[in-house]
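Hey, resending since the last one bounced:
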Amino acid sequence: MEAATAAATQLGSGSIEYSAQELSVEDTIMVHYTPPREFFREESGLFYCGGYNGWDGEETPVMVPLLRQRDGRYKASITIPNFAKTLDFTVTDGIRYDMGPDDAFYHIRVTHIREEDDAGNIRLYRQDEDGTLTYEGMIETFDPQELERMIDEGIDKVAENIKVETLSTEEQQAVQVMRAEASILGEKLGLGNMQVSEARDAFDFFDDETTGELQVEHLGLVLDRMGLTLDADEIAGLLERHTYATRPEATTVRLSEYMHMWSELDQADTGIDII
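The structure tokens again:
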């Protein structure tokens, strides 16, 4: 679909708001949209339709339905993939397209981005409004076993330190590093960028305290949210292979263990419902 071409004769400009001032890759944000008055048909459903890093409507878009609220605005939950520097999108009912200010798509800048260097290390940058990048640090590439050990140590440290509802700056940084390292592990296990983001989103949904661990009994809920249909014996098998094998008395599932489970299911391609 060529959104830019389809919108050429029927343009509008509403307004957007989103739920964070500084966005980071792998964040999930809530985008609120106010449509231009009398632009869309009253009964029509609206969709977020876009891409990343200068998307111009030529490539196949990401389509997310917008939910209407009582105040007349619409909202959608959008997960930022780990390669994104900008979110670029239009809003459409399938016939008309709101292309945003100056008819040039809506744009949301990602403040904290990542780039991979020639050695495979992940460099962290802050992206300013004018596109200027400021180096913030680096996540080095490790062999899988060493990386997993570091992830587990990081999770243990964060879980031990989180005693109150509000995290300190140091703890917030530890959580961000943990999330980045978990994504690298997922990719090393053969998962694609979008798969890793979707897996993290599902895990985080039930990780209320952002500890990087879930109660064992919540594993089935996470898998179900990912669209995976597994019975009790299959879930028990995953726990036996990826959790109890190294932690026989465990009552929680760690993020690194969950990534291994998701990789196994992806490679086996079993029990997956397309929803």
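The first strand starts at residue 15 and ends at 18.

Sorry for the duplicate.
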